[in-house]
Design goal:
Number of helices: 13
Shape: globular
CATH superfamily of the largest domain: Type I PLP-dependent aspartate aminotransferase-like (Major domain)
Structural class: alpha/beta
Number of strands: 12
Largest sheet: 7 strands, mixed
CATH architecture of the largest domain: 3-Layer(aba) Sandwich
Number of domains: 2
Distance between the termini: 61 Å
Bound molecules: pyridoxal-5'-phosphate
Strand content: 15-25%
Radius of gyration: 21 Å
């Protein structure tokens, strides 16, 4: 007789989940470590904002505003959108999880792209749904293959635009024609974690498209260009009805007091944003060109990281990663993204980029 235990009650799909492994950070804290593994901002937030955090923690005995009212006001103002259609979360991963809790279920299917962000299949499986993976095309998300993967059971489609870890984007015209073809009973999540970095005018972050497509939800984060990964802050924008549904099931105080206030202040830092975009434009190009000059292949990126192929006939990827780590440089191994020949390198600050380039050159050309 099988002994009963608590794990018998788990949804079968939960047993399929491989734990999310973030960019290596075990050697962070060691002096002068260069962390290029999680696409964080290489810049510290302005000191005038940073010093406010101390004062804010004085009120830690009290709960924060559960509705993140001030923050929503600031987001609405900055992005010229409607406050009532915003939800805030403890990072955008919090919101991705809330979305699947609400709109996915056992017996349902969730479509993710091959080489898409690895947290989507996790939240889908937590909800009990089956994950359907749509083949990508040349490492880009294929709207055509996603549409072909839709079935009667499809509940949610996840798309990161730009995509992590490949850095590719779907332009506005393609996104719109895709959205027109998706049945209205399927929720489309467009994750714009890296949207602020895109300068190509053919791109749309999709916020305005939510007026046209009531089944569209856009998620955003403060972890990348706004340089607040450590505070955990994200938000989403959709129809009033979808947001009302998500608001019912989020944690009552899911955004802490420091994140709400510092996030709100960061939205006003136009110069910080401009500097970050400029820096990224310059360095993603320099980084790619340099890596190419060493004989390694890169892919055009619209985000703050570069996808690099380490041709196994030319060089052992594991040796490269080990040697970089020995020199206190952490990059992202993409084995768990099913990209065994690839690494991903975030754009760091100028000094970090120079050190990375010098070090990888010395390893590859040795
Ligand atoms: C595409 C994408 N979405 C969401 C996230 C999660 O961001 P957050 O820090 O807001 O949870 C990441 C983090 O790397 C990401 O790459």
């Amino acid at each position: 007789m099988i002994k009963k235990n608590i794990f018998n009650s788990l949804k079968p799909s939960i047993n399929e989940i491989a734990k999310y492994i973030p960019g290596e950070s075990s050697i962070v804290g060691r002096k002068s470590v260069i962390k290029l593994s999680s696409n964080e901002s290489p810049f510290k937030i302005p000191k005038k904002i940073f010093i406010k955090a101390n004062k804010l923690t004085e009120n830690s005995n009290l709960y924060p505003d559960g509705d993140s009212d001030l923050l929503k006001d600031s987001i609405a103002k900055k992005f010229k959108i409607k406050k009532k259609r915003i939800i805030c979360g403890n990072g955008s991963d919090d919101i991705l999880s809330i979305i699947t809790q609400a709109f996915s279920r056992e017996g349902g299917e969730v479509i993710c792209s091959e080489y898409g962000f690895i947290y989507y299949p996790i939240v889908a499986k937590v909800s009990g749904a089956k994950v359907v993976t749509a083949k990508s095309k040349d490492y880009s998300i294929s709207c055509k293959n996603i549409l072909a993967s839709i079935s009667k059971k499809t509940k949610i489609i996840f798309i990161a635009n730009p995509n992590n870890p490949t850095g590719t984007i779907i332009m506005k015209n393609e996104l719109v024609s895709f959205l027109k073809k998706v049945p209205q009973n399927i929720l489309v999540v467009v994750d714009g974690a890296y949207a602020e970095y895109v300068t190509d005018l053919r791109f749309s972050d999709g916020l305005n498209l939510t007026n046209q497509f009531p089944n569209l939800i856009i998620t955003r984060t403060f972890s990348k260009i706004f340089a607040l990964a450590g505070l955990r802050l994200g938000w989403a924008y959709s129809s009033e009805k979808i947001i009302e549904t998500l608001e019912k099931i989020r944690g009552p105080f899911n955004v802490n007091i420091v994140a709400q206030n510092i996030g709100s202040l960061m939205l006003k830092e136009d110069n910080f944003l401009k500097k970050s975009i400029r820096h990224n434009m310059v360095w993603k190009k320099k980084l790619s060109a340099f890596v190419n000059s060493l004989g390694l292949e890169t892919y055009e990126t619209y985000a703050n990281f570069v996808l690099i192929r380490i041709d196994k006939a030319k060089f052992k990827k594991k040796t490269l990663i080990k040697k970089l780590t020995e020199k206190d440089i952490i990059i992202r191994d993409l084995d768990n993204y099913d990209l065994p020949e690839f690494i991903r390198v975030s754009v760091g600050n100028s000094l970090e980029m120079k050190k990375f380039m010098k070090t990888i050159k010395s390893i590859i050309l040795k």
